[in-house]
Amino acid sequence: MVTILVPGALRTDTAGASRLTVGTAGTLRAVLDEVDLHWPRLARRIRDEQGELRRYINVYVDGEDCRQSGGLDTPVTDEAEVQVIPSVAGG
Question: Which InterPro entries is this protein grouped with (predicted)?
């Protein structure tokens, strides 16, 4: 099972859950496809209409920034931890 850590700002799309689990491993794309099946509102906050990661969302697989390790093709093993972090703007 892959664990997805959801920050407070996105928990309204998961009925308040801070941790989600999915049975799919393989790639980040496959994991996010399963997220889309169970939590479509959350999936739309993570990926755009073309299925790409939104610019203001950072995703880490076992602590590694997926943009540096293959993007949506980043390998995700069973028991992996995927962390979703929205960028924070401020002044």
Answer: Beta-grasp_dom_sf (IPR012675), Mopterin_synth/thiamin_S_b (IPR016155), Sulfur_Carrier/Prot_Modifier (IPR052045), ThiS/MoaD-like (IPR003749)
* Total number of domains constituting the chain: 1
91 located within any domain? no
For residue 19, tell me if it sits in a domain: yes
For tokens 């799309």, name the residue. Answer: 13
Q: Sign of the CA dihedral 59, 86, 83, 47? A: negative
Residue type, position 82, single letter: V
Cα torsion 46, 47, 52, 57: sign = negative
pTM of the entire predicted model:
0.90
Q: Looking at the predicted structure, is the pLDDT value of residue 62 above 90? A: yes
> Is 41 a domain residue?
yes
